[in-house]
Design goal:
By secondary structure, the chain is of the alpha+beta class. The chain has 2 helices and 7 strands; from the N terminus they run ββββααβββ. It starts with a strand and ends in a 59-residue tail after the last strand.
Amino acid sequence: MTTANSESSTPVRIPGRGWTVRLTGHTDHSVTVSCTAPCRMPARSRDLATLRRFAAQHAAAHAKAATVRPNAACHCRSQRCDAHAAHKVHCAGSVVMVLRHDPSVGQVWIVEEVCESCAPLIPHARVLARATAPVRPVAAKPAVQVPAPARPDVMGLFSSAGAAADGRDTVRPSRSGAGRPRRSPRQGR
């Protein structure tokens, strides 16, 4: 499964999301629409076709509004891979957003973030979006160090009074203070 690196360079996964939109029939031949997210739903009605259209559009709206997160864990795995119980796989690959809807039943729409290994095994699932690769900051190029200018060599016949052969300064400051700058007298006195 995909992971994202934090500052401590340990893999961090966030739980995969899933939304279920369901039509529920009642004994008085009316239908209600429910969603696992706290969404506003239409009132109970006898118009099954209208509520079925609403449920399909509502599930599509969840899929459109949700951005697939590259560091999400497989939602199918959190459900113990019940959607494809006959085929056991190890969750791996990048994350995709799928919409599951069995047209023969026609009462449940499920939108979820799953891994690429589980997605093809889930019956009646259609991949709607794929996770984009996380943007990693570009490392700044190290500053080029300019070497210090070389000290000009003094020819062997000449010597400098204050420089040794290895470039160290050999002249010591005097203790008498003769080398200190003089104070200027204050004006106006």
